[in-house]
Design a protein that fits this description.
Two copies of one chain form a homodimer. Chain A has helices spanning about 15-35, 50-55, 65-75, 90-100, 110-120, 145-160, 175-195, 205-210, 230-235, 265-270, 320-325; strands at about 5, 10-15, 35-40, 60-65, 80-85, 105-110, 130-135, 165-170, 200-205, 220, 245-255, 260, 280, 290, 295-300, 315-320, 330-335, 340-345. With about 350 residues, chain A is an alpha/beta fold. Chain A folds into two domains: about 5-10 and about 230-345, Lyase, Ornithine Decarboxylase, Chain A, domain 1 (Beta Barrel); about 20-225, Alanine racemase (TIM Barrel), CATH 3.20.20. In chain A, α7 links the parallel β8 and β9 (about 200-205). In chain A, about 55% of the residues are buried. Chains A and B meet through β11 and α10 of A and β11 and α10 of B.
Chain lengths: ~350, ~350
């Protein structure tokens, strides 16, 4: 007997596997048609099975944001992992070395100090560590600030025993494509002149994934495209019908004729706003979760209505799916009304 | 050999057990001196050992927000649990009945529909279910809107086989004390007239816990007071030196002379703002985490400085500690520089 969605306890996460498959195929087709490589970020799903499916469909490998996530994926058999992070400290460097011994791995650096740490760890290692230079092309997070700094760091990497210069990486905020492109183009020019042409120039995120302009970027690292969310729809990256992840919630209170309260709060939807008003949209309606506490979501309706009723179940599209995945021990893979499987979120909570 | 904080991987949660003990004792002493009962909310710590300590020190029992949290606490031996939630649906009602058979339990209702669900489940039960009426005294979440509705619901509960009317409960936003007090006072008057005097009137949160005015409230349910946080300090409920929970993070990048990036992002600090600017304060400084992505926290300094350096470790006081606890599989209990024990967060992720 197949379980149905009606039998699930709320709040819980529903993942429409048919939409997932369509989203993965569409993105891979876009990559193939536009001459870039896809290296999906697994932070969105944190599930080895979807990482494997992404690779099966043509991804060159995966991206993970923390060592702990990469270790989970390696344990599950993923063998080409990019970790766009400055790995700092003796314990983490030891874990990095162990990981590099068993999978094709690359990391980033944005400072001489970080490269020095890699150098000390990988001097004399049987397998070199591939290091890309992280560039701040507008994201205002990590990254070298100038192309000259990028070149200096590339030289340091290339000149260090045990390390291999792997190219350039940037985190740019969604919509930052043009600025990032100009920045990277100039850096690539400088590196070429110096005889250090980058093999890989990796950038991007889900909305910018759809960019079709000419680019020096060889590889894109979208994550959210597997599920999409309210932010992505607002950015034009997808339609509501592409959204593959919803939080299923139950109406537990109708205190007024315009207010409904559901059992999904910030512990299910997160407080991420990403510029949206409210914390999520009720699928198939224009109702928004206006306020959250940890275990309650408050929906305010424009006009009085006796719907939804206490006990009704609503599917809520979160503003941002990635941190939602990180809150649940397991997610439900569904197709139509059937729950195909409930799977543990293998890389959940891997913060270090 | 005792482990030291310097040996911990980052990001991680540090809990200063000496501050915890002082915070718990101070609150209990306040309750004793001011004639109210303390029923701490365990959502903040989610740890049976601290729940037990709260009871040892004089709390009448604990509060849990979801059935799953209450079940974890009951499994650990806590035997007086208040669950201020509308429990809806057959499966959850079955779990509620099982829980009521093994601990002293009370729940809430704010609608006839919720009471009807309890009635169907507990008709003929060997142990009655205690049900309090939830009142919306300004929190604009769940709760009856008028005192007349509170009376009607109390009558429905008291007149139903298997149920016992337990009193009034309110969730009021911090600082809403006066309004809540007036609301509840009128409700209590109406109930007394009807011969349904509430045994328990339960309210409150951490900042309002310190209120010393005359009150019809018999019981307060603060949670955050065990650890405190940036919001509580801003509200005047505690000082920075009372803050018992910090996220330990490592500086992984110094991209500019005014920017430092740490390895704690929204997956460690959450995106909760609670009216604060930024996402947390670096202990012992005036530095604020200005921007977050999932695995990065960006600190912008007012003036150029070569401190902190890459590899330095910072302790960050989050805006709101409760959801932070929910992100980590385990927390580190520390005293001075020593890590006394690393304990799993037993009730983490119990959303249903």
């Amino acid at each position: 007997m197949t379980k149905t969605i009606a039998e699930l306890e709320t709040p819980c996460v529903l993942i429409d596997i048919d939409r997932v498959e369509a989203n993965l195929k569409r993105a891979q087709a876009h990559a193939d048609a536009n001459g870039y490589k896809l290296r999906p970020h697994i932070k969105t799903h944190k599930l080895p099975r979807f990482a494997k499916r992404q690779v099966e469909l043509g991804a060159v490998g995966i991206t993970a944001q923390k060592l702990g996530e990469a270790e989970v994926m390696a344990d599950a058999g993923l063998n080409d992992i990019f970790l766009p992070y400055n790995i700092i400290g003796a314990t983490k460097l030891g874990r990095l070395k162990a990981l590099n011994d068993r999978v094709t791995l690359a990391v980033t650096a944005d400072s001489p100090e970080t490269v020095t740490g890699y150098a000390a760890t990988f001097a004399g290692a049987s397998r070199k560590l591939t290091v890309l230079v992280e560039c701040d092309t507008g994201g205002e997070r990590c990254g070298v600030q100038t192309q000259v700094q990028a070149l200096a760091l590339a030289r340091q990497i290339a000149g260090t025993e045990g390390l291999r210069f792997g190219g350039l990486m940037t985190y740019s905020p969604p919509g930052g494509t043009d600025k990032a492109e100009a920045w990277l183009r100039q850096a690539v020019g400088l590196l070429k002149q110096a005889g250090l042409e980058p093999v890989v120039v990796t950038a991007g995120n889900t909305p910018d994934m759809w960019w079709t302009g000419e680019s020096v970027v060889t590889e894109r690292r979208p994550g959210t495209y597997i599920y999409y969310d309210r932010f992505q729809v607002q950015k034009g990256a997808a339609s509501w019908d592409d959204c593959a992840l919803a939080v299923l919630a139950t109406v537990v209170s109708r205190p007024t004729s315009t207010r409904a309260v559901v059992d999904a709060g910030s512990k299910a939807l997160t407080s991420d706003l990403l510029g949206q008003e409210g914390y999520g949209l009720v699928m198939g309606t224009d109702l928004v979760v206006k306020a959250l506490s940890e275990e309650h979501g408050v929906i305010e309706m424009g006009t009085a209505s006796d719907m939804p009723r206490i006990g009704d179940r609503l599917r809520i599209i979160p503003n941002h799916v990635c941190p939602v995945t990180n809150l649940f021990d397991s997610v439900n893979l569904v197709s139509g009304d059937a729950v195909i499987e409930t799977v543990p979120v293998a890389a959940r909570g891997r913060v270090d």
